[in-house]
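[Discussion] Sanity-checking designs against the backbone

I'm trying to build intuition for which residues belong where. Below is a structure token string of 438 positions. I'd appreciate it if someone posts a full sequence so I can compare it with mine line by line.
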């Protein structure tokens, strides 16, 4: 019947509801007051229609105090013993970090505490170190940044790190996935609208740009924005003012813009699909985020990080990953990049019932790509061969910095020294061999 059966305390705080307010006879629309209510875009309607869980759906809601908040919504189903759907759970995450809301203040404080040296970016590879070297300079400026990289490389993570290390760190960071919103909806989401601007516009609404005033707005997948909306974006970036949809009043804003795209925007410009003036306006400071296949030496450190996360989430006590499982991960090219690796470790954490992730705990399609494992298995002592090659690769890419190599491999320096001695590996022998090959 689409009525609220339960709402937790965190959601009550977000919506500004009184503790004694009975919500059982209220609908979702009564509470969240979003433009997508009673439309085909309604998250509840979509979940019922598709019978699938929906993740990270972005929209804007309004609380009882009249504060507009960009939110990300996830849904899941409640089922009875026969597997029939008897209810839907909706989980809302506030993306604007609006002050005065208890849960978001805690999240903001947590993120600020992490910002010291971009500590939320995992990796020690040369590619990551080169990128980290320029981030402090970028963070301290107001220049528009364009993050270029494939899907799953962590563009929003980098954007957030730039914001948290900038003078705007105490203001809002508002993320917009431009590809997830239809053109008509996107303009209203970005610029807001006035009451009566279109059917269903029952009240004035602040757009994401206004919500990000004095802070940072992150325009993800900007390459998917229509040419019409691109023109309006360009005006906002150049003039630092906007007009709400259906309005005539110019509103001044002070924001820092970070854009991102997994598409080659220059190719889109040449094909007439992206405005050249907007391209050069957002590409004041371009940063390329390398795909995971170009920094595989970061994989062991990322794996440890994700194991730690899922140990907490799943109440597990996984301590390590076997050499063969690690070799399998290193042999894979990750078209989905870091996001795919995280999903793989989540899968493995679910399957692992002990304290060590083994090859059989990895997804079947990953096991099927074990090129290195397959090649090594044709030789005697395949695990030792893979371990030796992994050590050499990490040592080469760390410049034979034993402390850094041991950290990447997840070993103590003593253990690394012992394994090198067992394999009869020395820096001198390695350099002589490389000189011979060259």
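Best answer:
Here's mine. Compare freely.
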């Amino acid at each position: 019947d689409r009525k609220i059966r339960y709402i937790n305390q965190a959601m009550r705080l977000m919506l500004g509801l009184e503790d004694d307010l009975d919500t059982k006879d209220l609908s979702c629309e009564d509470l969240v007051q979003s433009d997508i209510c009673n439309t085909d875009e309604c998250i509840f309607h979509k979940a019922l229609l598709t019978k699938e869980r929906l993740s990270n759906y972005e929209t804007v809601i309004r609380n009882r105090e009249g504060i507009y908040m960009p939110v990300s919504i996830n849904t899941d189903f409640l089922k009875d013993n026969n597997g029939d759907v008897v209810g839907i759970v909706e989980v809302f995450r506030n993306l604007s970090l609006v002050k005065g809301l208890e849960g978001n203040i805690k999240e903001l404080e947590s993120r600020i505490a992490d910002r010291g040296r971009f500590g939320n970016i995992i990796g020690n590879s040369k590619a990551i170190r080169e990128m980290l070297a320029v981030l402090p300079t970028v963070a301290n400026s107001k220049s528009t940044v364009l993050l270029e990289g494939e899907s799953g490389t962590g563009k929003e993570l980098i954007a957030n790190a730039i914001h948290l290390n900038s003078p705007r760190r105490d203001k809002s960071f508002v993320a917009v996935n431009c590809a997830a919103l239809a053109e008509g909806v996107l303009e209203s989401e970005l610029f807001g609208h006035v009451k009566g601007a279109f059917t269903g516009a029952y009240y004035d609404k602040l757009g994401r740009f206004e919500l990000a005033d004095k802070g940072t707005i992150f325009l993800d997948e900007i390459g998917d924005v229509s040419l019409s909306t691109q023109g309006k974006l360009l005006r906002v970036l150049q003039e630092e003012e906007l007009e709400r949809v259906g309005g005539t009043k110019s509103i001044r804003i002070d924001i820092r813009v970070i854009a991102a795209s997994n598409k080659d925007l220059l190719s889109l410009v040449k094909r007439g699909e992206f405005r050249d003036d907007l391209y050069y306006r957002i590409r004041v400071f371009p940063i390329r985020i390398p795909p995971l296949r170009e920094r595989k030496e970061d994989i062991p450190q990322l794996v440890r990080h994700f194991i730690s996360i899922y140990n907490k989430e799943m109440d597990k006590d996984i301590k390590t990953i076997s050499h063969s499982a690690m070799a399998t991960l290193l042999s894979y090219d990750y078209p989905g990049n870091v996001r795919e690796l995280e999903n793989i470790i989540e899968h493995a954490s679910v399957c692992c019932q002990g304290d060590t992730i083994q090859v059989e705990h990895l997804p079947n399609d990953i096991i099927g790509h074990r090129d290195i494992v397959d090649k090594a298995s044709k030789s005697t002592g395949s695990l030792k061969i893979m371990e030796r090659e992994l050590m050499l690769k990490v040592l080469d890419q760390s410049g034979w910095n034993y402390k850094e190599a041991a950290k990447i491999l997840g070993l103590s320096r003593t253990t690394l020294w012992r394994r090198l001695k067992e394999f009869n590996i020395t820096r001198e022998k390695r350099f002589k061999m490389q000189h011979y090959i060259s």
